[in-house]
Amino acid sequence: MAQKRVVGNWKLNGSLAANEALLGALGAVAGVDVAVCVPFPYLAQAAARLRGVALGAQTVSEFQSGAYTGEVSAEMLADLGCRYAIVGHSERRTLFGEDDATVGRKAAAALRAGLMPIVCVGESLAEREAGRVAEVIGRQLDTVLAVIGAPALARVTVAYEPVWAIGTGRAASAQEAQAVHAGIRRWLGERGGAAAAAACVLYGGSVKADNAASLFAMPDIDGGLIGGASLAARDFMSICQAANGA
Length: 246
Hints:
CATH architecture: Alpha-Beta Barrel
Structural class: alpha/beta
Distance between the termini: 12 Å
CATH topology: TIM Barrel
Number of domains: 1
Order of helices and strands: EHEHEHEHHEHHEHEHEH
Shape: globular
Largest sheet: 8 strands, parallel
Number of strands: 8
Number of helices: 10
Strand content: 15-25%
CATH superfamily: Aldolase class I
C-alpha cells in the first residue's frame, strides 16, 4: 500500500502577505507525504518558504514550449521546484472544457518533466444516481492510460473527487469512498500490475478535520486532496496528522 499523502489545493486564493503566515505554519508530518498546490504566481514564494512540504501546481500545459501565450509548461514547473501537478480537476473539466483526452496529454507532459501527475477522476450526482460511477471513472482512466502507457501508471497519483462533493460541504461516506477506491485500485492492478496497484489513491471530496480520520482509515484510501481546508493551517495540519494515525 502507498504511503499516506495529503495534498492541499489552494485554488484561486492567496496573497503574498497571507501566504507568509500560512506557509510558515506548515511542516512535515512523520509517515505522510505533505504537499501544497498553489497558484502559479506564488510558486516561487512557496518554494522558498516550505520546509518538509512538497510543492505542486494546480494544472499544467500539455505543451512543452512555443507560441502558447499564457500557458505554463511542466518543465517550467519542475524548474521552480514542483514535484506534483494536478491534472483534470473537476473545475478544470467543467469550467474550462478540459476533456479526458486533454487530461491524458497533460499527465504525459507532467511525467515527461519528472513531475508526478495527480489525475483527478469522479462522477457527477446524476451519473452516481444512474449507477454509472465505475463506467465514468473507467472511461476517464482509460483515456489517460492510452496516452501514457501501462508502465507509467505506477508513477501517477489518482484522486477520486465525486463532483457532487466538491466545495459543497457534502462528502461521500467512508464506506462509499472506499468502494470506489477499491475499484480504482483493481483497475490499476489489471492494467499496470502490482506496481500500479500500489500507486497512491487519494480522496478529494470535502475532506475536513472532522471526517479525515474515518476516511483515511479505509484500506484503499491513501490520503486526501484537500481544497478549502488547506487554506487554514490548523485544519490542514490536523488532516495531515489524521493521515499519520491511519
